[in-house]
Specification:
Layout (H helix, E strand, L loop, with lengths): L5 H4 L2 H17 L5 E15 L4 E3 L7 E9 H10 L2 E6 L6 E5 L5 E2 L7 E6 L2 E17 L2 E2 L6 E3 L4 E3 L2 E7 H4 L4 E3 L3 E2 L7 E6 L9 E3 L2 E6 L1 E17 L7 E3 L2 E9 H4 L8 E5 L11 E4 L2 E3 L6 E4 L4 E4 L10
Length: 321
């Protein structure tokens, strides 16, 4: 006769097996176990609230080791999300300072069951520099050439033409302008307005306002004009000693039809600077490439002859130019 109730003895072996399995699962479940872990290479981020100063260089050291304790599952999650140490600086007393790191400055992502036990090393060295502000001219960085079938109707407009900058005084002291990222003229097939970001290379922690500008390009179909005899002029020191052969060249001008209307094409010429050809002996001849000059605004020259000859004749025989 059994002294135990029947509900206890009924399927006793199955109940015992279930109990053993439950105990085993409890023992191995990582979410319920507390363990310690050292997180290496945790980055240190400095947040300066003092508007008169900024961080001159990364903290030293730039990374630390953080020892945490808590459920293994949350530690694994933290390893995926990455921890950081954020150092708030309310006011700056000088250029160099040492800050003791606090455990509540460690951000652990979305985890809530972890405890920061230690930070190694316990302090970091910070270096600050004064902040200044300036107004900088925007320098549009153009590259490439317009497609052959289009021409500018008006000068390219950049809005705004100046921007405000705030950052390290040593950087701003050497600047009067800031370039944009390259704007490729070859990509312009029709009139358009495009946002172009400013190039912050070498500006460190400098803040720009705004960070991009609007570039407006107005183009139209390209028109062409051919001039048969454009004079070639010698300019520069000693120009009277030389003669150029031939004394005129044909040239093709390209621009929007609107730019040709009312344009004075009589000012167009080719020039050769004597400083670019060096000293010639009497009788010596040199082939050079002349440069278009006197072009109306937004009209470009397509040179139809490669070069001319500059000669130094006997004294008094230079001839007309």
């Amino acid at each position: 006769m059994s002294f135990l109730p029947r509900f206890v003895t009924h399927n006793a072996s199955l109940k015992i097996a279930s109990l053993v399995a439950a105990v085993f699962l409890w023992a191995i479940a990582p979410a319920d176990r507390t363990q310690q872990e050292s997180l290496t290479s945790v980055p240190v981020r400095v947040q300066v609230a003092d508007l008169a100063w900024t961080v001159a260089e990364p903290p030293f050291p730039a990374t630390v080791e953080v020892r945490v304790a808590g459920p293994a599952r949350e530690i694994i999650q933290l390893a995926r999300e990455r921890a950081t140490v954020r150092v708030p600086v309310e006011s700056v007393a000088g250029e160099d300072t040492v800050v003791t790191l606090r455990r509540d400055w460690v951000t652990l992502g979305g985890t809530s069951g972890l405890v920061v036990e230690e930070i190694l090393p316990a302090s970091v060295q910070l270096r600050f520099e004064p902040v200044d502000s300036a107004v900088l001219v925007v320098d549009l960085n153009l590259e490439g050439e317009l497609p052959e079938d289009v021409a500018l109707v008006a000068p390219i407009q950049v809005t705004p033409a100046v921007i405000r900058a705030r950052g390290p005084a040593r950087i701003l002291a050497s600047l009067d302008s800031v370039p944009t990222l390259p704007f490729d003229l070859a990509s312009v097939g029709a009139s358009r307005v495009r946002a172009v970001a400013l190039d912050t290379t070498g500006l460190g922690s400098t803040l720009l306002d705004p960070r991009e500008v609007q570039v407006a390009v107005r183009v139209d179909a390209a028109s062409r004009r051919e001039l048969d005899a454009v004079p070639v002029r010698l300019v520069g020191p000693g120009a009277a000693q030389y003669r150029v052969e031939p004394e005129s060249l044909p040239v093709e001008l390209v621009g929007a039809e609107l730019r040709f209307q009312g344009a004075d094409l009589s000012t167009v010429a080719f020039e050769i600077d004597t400083r670019d050809i060096g000293l010639l002996d009497v009788g010596e001849r040199r082939r050079v490439l002349p440069t278009p000059a006197g072009l109306p605004e937004l009209i470009r020259a397509v040179q139809m002859s490669d070069s001319v000859t500059v000669v130094r004749p006997p004294d008094g025989d230079a001839g007309a130019r």
